[in-house]
Amino acid sequence: MSTSNNNEHNDTQPAMETPPVVGPQAWEIAWRQLLAKEKAHAHARDALAAERRRMPWMAVDKGYAFEGPSGKVSLLDLFDGRRQLIVYRAFFEPGVHGWPDHACRGCSLGADQVAHLAHLNARDTTLVFASRAPQADIARLKARMGWDIPWFTITDSFDVDFGVDEWHGHNVFYRDGDKAFRTYFVNNRGDEQMGGTWNYLDITPLGRQEVWEDSPEGYPQTPTYKWWNWHDNYVEGATPDKKWVEVSDVGEAAFRNKDGTANP
Fold this sequence. Notes:
Elements: E1 2-3, E2 16-17, H1 24-52, E3 58-60, E4 65-68, E5 71-74, H2 75-78, E6 84-89, H3 105-112, H4 117-121, E7 125-131, H5 135-145, E8 151-154, H6 158-161, E9 169-176, E10 179-187, H7 188-192, H8 197-202, H9 242-254
């Protein structure tokens, strides 16, 4: 089927070749065929995340320094007391297109789609951005764009050492006491998928920390859905809300297979 181009400014463009138009039954069949492939893709993605949780760690032996709103901080300080840290290298500095009014367009689009950080924090995970711009410029940019992501200034070779001196990327770290370990790195098109709570958690060493996940022995896991909350209502160590437990149990049961396995 072809459709005409209604944009008067694109009269020279060829007609758009659209899929066939069918009735409800044929549409349902086509949808279910594609759904089977999408489920297989979801299962493969889960398996990849499970493999990621078993990837070797690299000890971070160098003491990196950043500038924050309150002064000089270390890499360990960026964790903000949590066990997991995701650092996104955003390009906002002299020489980057848009300076000094804007950060890189791609990095800015990424910042615009970052989910509320309270959900990551509830899973013992901190997300920060890091650039080479001074803190005064970062504060001005955040105010202009309406961003509240913690954003620090790189002062040493952190970007060079972790593969983000010339291109954007997310580095993932785990803290064990006063030791930090690099656990994962994603850039290029994989980097474009970041922004949502689940995609962030899936690149961390602990994952989503729900009981359905295939994680190494001893990793923290809680019942599926039960930790979810309004972003202004998280209380550390609180018992899951009884009403939400009831609602989520009913919802989960609705998409369970007859054998009790998940049917995502």
